[in-house]
Amino acid sequence: MISKLPELTTTIFTVMSKMAQEYGAINLSQGFPDFHGDPLLVDLVERAMREGYNQYAPMPGDPQLRAQIASKLNNNYGSNYSEETDITITAGATQAIFTAIAASIHKGDEVIVFSPAYDCYEPAVSLFEGVSRQIQLRPPNYSPDWEEVERSIGPKTKMIIVNSPHNPSGMLFSKEDMEELQRISVKHQLLVISDEVYEHIIFDGNIHNSAARFPELAERTFITASFGKTFHNTGWKIGYCAAPKVLMEEFRKVHQYNVFSVNHPIQKALATYLQDAQTYEDLAAFYQQKRDLFLDLISSSRFKYVPSKGTYFQLLDYSEISSEGDIAFAEWLTKEKGLASIPTSVFNANGEDFHQIRLCFAKKEETLEQAAAILNSI
């Protein structure tokens, strides 16, 4: 068999989590909590199962859940999404991203991707014979250079993929960033995927500048989101895509033959759970307490950092500790010190190495204390 993705290897998340297990290391590599989600949500899923919602859901998703999502978006961002035509429930945000790319990208189309980037974007573009054009963001702030973006646009450029809050850097796109994205995408007639899975995990009084806030941008954007990330149940693999009708019609053509429909009882449970806005509005304070605790615990370490502005990830710069490449350093940290992290060069254009590792602080307090003790000992 001839591989369609011959250069692709096992994802770094799988590699580091496996290494953590083999060496009995604390796993701050992969982005999932080590605590349980809300028991009420679990009870609502069980209730939905007992009430008989165990067969296929409607292809676009449960109507009540789509209505709750549309209401949340419209109330939070001043948008005008219709639950009937503009919202589709997906098997996680990764499937939403894949489906948006599958519905949009043809052979030879170019897609601008900001690096460091979540590692699902480029393989999907390649699978549909598109070409990724990486624009490297740089520490310490990882801010986009919009002049560079515009210089990178050519006659074959079809799409830009953005992610804010940004994984792995914790950077946020500002209002000015989104206005520039809107100007450029309208001027050059580009589609946009806005990966907003951490939309409710934002710190220090900042706000989320969703693509939904910017009308001309929203008209050409697939917004993707994750309930698994939001409600601490990543294994449930449930999210959604929001897009205007003309884009969503193409999205659903792929979705219906790729997934068709998503876990029905979880959809029914979420439709009820989302009626209380506090379920997601309290997330920022919840995770900021964890970020602040973790950074306070490692304040005397030799690692340098810029506090994460969003997501539940923190970058640490180890350049004053070692001159080793970040993959070698992450392996050493796991094997010799018992702490698993993610080397960030794997997300960068041409594997550029800034001597930084990414740690997940979506963990119990005792887990963060144990991890900090290791970091402080180096």
Automatic annotation (TrEMBL):
It holds the Pfam family Aminotran_1_2. Keywords: Aminotransferase, Pyridoxal phosphate, Transferase. Its cofactor is pyridoxal 5'-phosphate. The keyword Glycoprotein does not apply. GO terms for cellular component: cytoplasm. InterPro entries: Aminotransferase_I/II_large, Kynurenine-oxoglutarate_AT, PyrdxlP-dep_Trfase, PyrdxlP-dep_Trfase_major, PyrdxlP-dep_Trfase_small. GO terms for molecular function: kynurenine-oxoglutarate transaminase activity; pyridoxal phosphate binding. Residues 26-373 form the Aminotransferase class I/classII large domain. Belongs to the class-I pyridoxal-phosphate-dependent aminotransferase family. This is Methionine aminotransferase.
